Amino acid sequence: MSEAFTPEAVEALLPEVAALIISALNLDMAPGEIEADAPLFGDGLGLDSIDVLEIALVISKQYGFQLKSDNEDNIRIFSSLRALTAHIASQRTK
Amino acid sequence: MTSAPLLAHKDPEAVFAWRPDGPVSVGEYLADAAALAGQLPATGYLLNLCHDRYRFAVGFAAGLLRGMTSLQPSSQSAETLRRLQADYPGLVCLCDGDTETLDLPCLDFPDLAVPRGEFLQGAGNRKNEPKTEFSAPQIPADHVAAILFTSGSTGLPQAQPKTWKKLVQNGRAEAIALGLDRQPHAIVGTVPVQHSYGFESTFLLALHGGGAFWAGKPFFPQDIATALDAVPQPRLLVTTPFHLSTLLAAGLDLPPVDLLLSATAPLSTTLAAEAEARTGAPLLEIYGSTESGQLASRRTTDGPVWTLLPGVRLETEDDRTIACGNHVEGRVALSDLIELLPEHRFLLHGRHADLINIAGKRTSLAYLNHQLGAVPGVIDGTFFLPDEAGPDGITRLTAFVVAPGLSARQVTVALRERIDAIFLPRPLVLVDELPRNSTGKLPRGELQALYAEKVSHG
Fold first, then answer.
1. CATH topology of domain B3-349
2. Strand-strand pairing, B336-341 and B345-351
3. Which residues cross the membrane (chain A) (predicted)?
4. What is d(CA B208, CA B175) in angstroms, rounded to the nearest whole number?
């Protein structure tokens, strides 16, 4: 586990994670265009399970931890950019 | 053969499935299925949407015991559910957890609470006699046990009915081809149990190869490692090229695996060799289709030649290759270019251009274009699959759409109602008109040029 994290630290990490998602998925948009609290699936960014695996791979390389869920239909940490970023902040080892 | 047993296991105490809280025996499985059967309607159609592989298996067997038919669409989009509701009146959904089922009648998977250890018709009274006379329930051989769906060339989903006899034969043939009839394995699958590959290679393979399966569908690489660790050796990992490449790229220490199975998309020799080197397990590929069932296997590192499953035949008829024999329903024309070789072997030379396969989900361009054209406000539009980036990567579709007054996001939202998310265009490009030629067709070269201009900037 890593050092304690605060909402401010999560906020500061948002652009970095947004940029990571955009680069991993070749999306045609700027990091600021991903709304922090909008759903990543469905009506928001429209990600699917293939995208999630792609993102999980770059997260594990960049932040040094493995994602777990046991079920692609139940991936709460991918509910929004903020949720994902908070999870990274709490789990990162580098 | 007028009937065939529900499963091949001979010992009611053998493990049928592994769940996070431990093993489930064959006897407990049959008791769960009998208990659920009492809550299902007699006859009709069961849309079994359970995520948990064990609950799916209980629902499937319960449906069989009631004389029901399992509906297994290739997507669960709202459009698909509405079509099923119209075509199969009286269908009942079986669900575990959150699943969107519109207003279809839905049964939540019940807490069966069957007392463990005491059941079982046919097993005798085990207080007084040893387990000698176990016999599995018999299912009529010609009963249509399942209907799997594919996208036909007309663009509309086509029903592929499977009789119980053929499903049993499919499971047995695959078990023989993989050697699991001699040495049952514990099966861990990363693929959904409802689709043909997962249905055949996790559920039917355990049911009629006499093995056991992991109830979950591990997703992240760490989940796959955890699932493998939770079942005993020998272990079979049933996966796809994409899941496999992600798993290897994660660089985890994997528990020992004894056999790897891949299907749904071509697998590169490089990835196959890396997978074998990292796990020490042979990697076999399966070739088949939803229409025909599984047809052949090969060890990818041994070369490109496929060997037919026991009893399956390929024949040439005009310019087409026909699959028949054993578990193949009737005579099925294959959409691939195939070169027949002696001794039940063949080479595969590619697929028909209209077929789309992304991460193991199949559809046709005709179907996607039909759905796109049906979106209100879309005047013209076409999907386009760019040339593939890499053999084991995932190439996404692009769509070019003429829809004055609509934004790309609005069209995408409407499309999401109609097609599986994996086929949603990325990106969807609005254009003033499509480069149709004088006969109204869209030459691929023109679309490639449009793609280069609007998307790849190349």
1. Rossmann fold (3.40.50)
2. antiparallel
3. none
4. 8
Q: Name the residue with tokens 């996001």.
A: B409
Contact residues of A toward B, CB < 8 A? 25, 27-28, 42-43, 46, 48-50, 52-54, 56-57, 60, 66-75
Environment class of B252 (CB within 10 Å of its CB; exposed 0-12, middle 13-18, buried 19+) = middle
The pLDDT of residue B202 is 97
Beta bridge partners of A80: A39
Chain A residue with minimum CA distance to B423: A48
Structural domains of chain A ordered from first start = 7-91 (1.10.1200.10)
Least confident of B120-129, B163-172, B303-312, B360-369: B120-129
The letter for the amino acid at B338 is I
Confidence of residue B393 (pLDDT cuts 50, 70, 90): low
Q: Report d(CA B15, CA B29) in Å as an integer.
A: 9
Give the model confidence (pLDDT) of B311-355 as tens digits: 999 999 887 899 999 999 999 999 888 999 999 999 988 766 677
B11 band by pLDDT with thresholds 50, 70 and 90: very high
Phi then psi dihedrals of residue B162, to 5 deg: -125, 120
Contacts of B212 (CB under 8 A, 6+ apart): B14, B15, B16, B17, B18, B23, B184, B186, B187, B206, B231
Cβ contacts of B223 within 8 Å, gap of 6 or more: A68, A69, A70, B216
Cis status, amide bond into B406, omega within 30 of 0: no
Calculate what percentage of chain B has a pLDDT beyond 70.
91
Count of other CB atoms within 10 angstroms of residue B375: 19
Residues from chain A that touch B222, judged by Cβ atoms under 8 A, are 66-68
Domain range annotation of chain B = 3-349, 359-456
SS3 assignment, position A46: coil
Measured at the CA of B148, the angle between CA B147 and CA B151, to 5 degrees, comes to 130
Task: List CB contacts (< 8 A) between B191 and chain A.
Answer: none
Architecture of domain B359-456: 2-Layer Sandwich (3.30)
